[in-house]
Amino acid sequence: MLIAFKLKLALACVAGFAGPLAVAPLVSEIAAPATQGEPAIVDIPGGSFAYREAGDFTRGGKQAEAALRTLQFTRPLHIMRDQVSSADYQLCVRDGACHPFDRSVTIAPDLPAVQVSWHDAQAYADWLSRKTGHHYRLPSDAEWAFAAGSRFRDDGAPVDANDPAKRWISRYERESERDLSDTTAYPFGKFGLNERGVSDLAGNVWEWTSTCFVRSRVDASGNAGRPTVNCGVRVAEGAHRAYVTDFIRDARAGGCAQGVPPANLGFRLVREEQSWVATVSARWSEVWAARS
Dihedral sign, CA of 247, 16, 174, 151? Predict the structure, then answer.
């Protein structure tokens, strides 16, 4: 187990991550009753939007900026209006399906679950799917960006071929200009709704996505090489895009987060809607299985 831990951390750091260390404050636990039901879902109609892919890109062996391209969603996106609350996450803990909070976190139905790793978020999605009969999952980075709308921060920055480090310095300075020192987990609604009716996007809680860190290479002639995919590091979205090792619960205390580390790590989920054809097909399969 220790060897696996060190290997993941080494892979993340090899990917070029470095983050300042900080000690997270402790907060007291407040018991709060909660009952698990279907979360409030926002249905976002399909559409197109400008999106810059997450990851690291090189062209001809030199640092390059990812292309800004147009993505088209042909189906509606069904995403939680709010982040998963600490009270709802605690129900998963009580069922033995989720890992307990590392520290005493305030547990309430109107407070986001924070200090959770990517694996914690994945475990909760699996548990909620079993409980409700619907398929819940983490959004991809592109889905999160689509749902965020005007609150999605394009992390593109110009590349100086003679001094690639300038790009990283520029990005760090840009992220540092935003006041992210407040790590308080505020009640839902503190950061308001965006134009699509989704709450608290790009506040002081970064949200895990399913997207893995990718290094993409293009040679001098424009031919794409085989990308290097590191799923031990995932994209977390918030006030800016971050790359965080998947087992980290508090990126301020380590985890090789690139640039300014997230103030809090939380999540919200996407609900998959089964199509009418798939539903009918599944029912017929059950009927034929019963007759066999």
Answer: negative
